[in-house]
Write a structure and sequence with these properties.
alpha/beta, Rossmann fold, seven-stranded parallel sheet, 9 helices, 7 strands
């Protein structure tokens, strides 16, 4: 069955991986992001893999922008079967203690991750309900166990998990599912984090049974596609780790 899905922040990394995996299934994938050049390039990749890629500009933390994104999708394609909130603050890979994290920094994390999740959920819900659709939120093991020097990032990722659990209970009777995905994958953000904190690579990879980062396209994207599709119809409220065994999430 062909589906219409939107992925925020899908200009690279895990978001791009999810978009391409959905394209592999022949789905229509909307790349909702700030950077048009990169977004259109990913949309073209989706189309080249057998799906239909489209780009729409999106400021994930701005209500009117998110409303316009969802309205555009439904106007052009007639339905919305899946929504993925992947966008994160550009500050996410920058380590710093709580004393070094300014209120401006914290607001940006909250705006993109927490408010962005809330806004996409609110706008997508009626359309997901109409087709029995699903939403996926990209969180992190940082939101489960915390991370030294990433207090703001860990806080918003934990908040996303709480929102997913609450919405799963609220939406279940309406036939809409929502789950979270906690990946550990190669990409620009983690590359930047490793470069800013050289010891981080050893800490992260040293605790992983598989000893490596995942591939966003072949190892993370298909799991997100599973959570969006009919094979996961009895799953909701779950945080699913796709991290090579790095973190045990309960």
């Amino acid at each position: 069955m062909s589906r219409v899905v939107v992925v925020t922040g899908a200009t690279g990394g895990v978001g791009r991986g999810i978009a391409l995996a959905c394209g592999d299934a022949g789905w229509t994938v909307w790349i909702a992001a700030r950077r048009a050049v990169e977004g259109n390039a990913v949309a073209e990749e989706v189309t080249a893999r057998g799906g239909l890629g489209r780009f729409v500009h999106c400021e994930a933390g701005e209500p009117e922008s998110v409303r316009r994104v969802v309205a555009t999708i439904v106007e052009q394609d007639g339905a919305l079967h899946g929504a993925v909130h992947n966008a994160t603050s550009g500050l996410s890979p920058r380590p710093g203690s709580v004393g070094e994290t300014t209120m401006t920094d914290l607001r940006d994390h909250v705006a993109v991750s927490v408010r962005g999740t809330y806004l996409l959920a609110r706008e997508a819900l009626p359309h997901l309900e109409a087709v029995g659709g699903a939403m996926v939120v990209l969180t992190s093991e940082a939101g489960v166990e915390g991370k030294a020097k990433l207090p703001a990032y860990a806080a918003v990722k934990a908040a996303q998990r709480g929102m997913v659990r609450s919405l799963a209970r609220e939406w279940g009777p309406r036939g809409v599912r929502i789950n979270a995905l906690a990946p550990l994958a190669a990409g620009p953000s983690i590359d930047e984090a490793f470069s800013r904190d050289p010891a981080m690579a050893e800490r992260v990879l040293g605790r992983s049974p598989m000893g490596r980062l995942g591939d966003a396209v072949t190892e993370i994207g298909p799991v997100a596609r599973f959570l969006l599709g009919p094979d996961s119809v009895f799953m909701t409220g779950v945080t699913l780790p796709v991290d090579g065994g790095s973190c045990s999430i309960s």
